[in-house]
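> @MW can you paste both from yesterday?
MW: sure, first one:
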Amino acid sequence: MSWGARPLEPWRWLAVPMLQALAATLLFAIPIRMFGLGLPEPVFPMAAAFAWAVIRPSVLAPFGVLIMGLFLDLLWGSPVGLWAVCLLLAYGVALAGRSMTAGQSRGMLWAWYAALTALAMGAGYLFTMLDVKAAPSPYAMGWQFLATIVLYPFAHRLIELFEDADVRFR
């Protein structure tokens, strides 16, 4: 079954994925413990930020990334602007390398997504280290990284839905 290209309406390719990422973040923030372990805290907005950069350049997408980053800061108790800067850094690099991602296989896009996730989390690690003057747990960051790169199929689905909607940018 082929869905075909969908029209590129901002509410459909920006607002809906942003609300879904924020809702999933809230769902995973529920303090449920099983066998002494809590739910992982993947960075759900990373999937949307990556997909938006691959789909097409937009004036609205960076504002969506900023809003999602500020939401993460408020929810997780981070310094205000930490996740916004990290996500915008990953979005900017993905947007700059957009021509390299065109026509790539799913595996290569997943590798690119993983590299950008590592960049964003590495920046967050360094900024946190500078802020609190102590190193965060690399073990916890590693689990968060793994939980986030597993989210790539959601980014790929968003890319497939809207990639060919606006041929001016292909």
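MW: second:
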Amino acid sequence: MHRDELADFLRRRREAIRPAEVGLTDGPRRRTTGLRREEVAMLAGMSVDYVVRLEQGRSSRPSTQLLGALARALRLSDDERAHLFHLSGHRPPPADGLARMARAGLLRMLDLLGDTPALVLSDLGEVLAQNRAAVLLMGDHTGFSGDRRYIVHRWFTDPAARAVHPPEEQEHQARQLVADLRAAAGRRSGDPVVAGLVDRLQAASADFRRLWAEHEVAVRRADRKTLMHPRMGRLLMDCETLVTPDQGQQLLVLTPADDEARERLELLRVLGIEEFPTGTTSTQAR
């Protein structure tokens, strides 16, 4: 671990970011154009004291989980993120691990979208990042582990995952999920991560086996669907998906499709976050 170099790198990256780039207000009392340490701590979900010790070269070696959180908070590029891992005495994550970290440009877009719900997803449907509006609409879906981090796996193995869509839309949604996974499997032919996920889904769900056997392929770009929110009720949403050039990550943007949905989203923003009942948060946005 190169403590002095790590401290200098983190300090300079913090000072290089404008608050507006991460969705924070640049108030009149701010003495620097960069972020404050407490703002980095808030964005990374760690203590201010630990951020201070990192920047002063007094910390213990951070875990890979903490490094990932810092990389997201500081909007590091892929090269900067790898450098951060090297300075901390860790190998950068393998290709699959890197794919599970939202790209800096997509994170900035999340911040710029403000009150418009938006998410960054991997090509296998893992939610890598959400803005506040998306958390209000769907709950926080960045903390799942194992196969549950994949939306398609939760859909076919957890009955509560389907409750976010009305019954008349569930078959269509299931077909979309399987067709999108089929497209990813084609692009990543021979990838054991994808093959293993498909094998486990086939073993766990007869419904998945039925749809997988139909060999439908479709990468989704735009869609309209109804989301069942536990407090706001039915919301008709337009979903637009923007895909990175390598098709490794996607930015999903959700906008209200009618006046009723728009009014309910505005009310939700005013009310803020309350605890979502277990099993009733949206586990499926795509």
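> thanks! Residues 274-286 have pLDDT under 50 and may be disordered.
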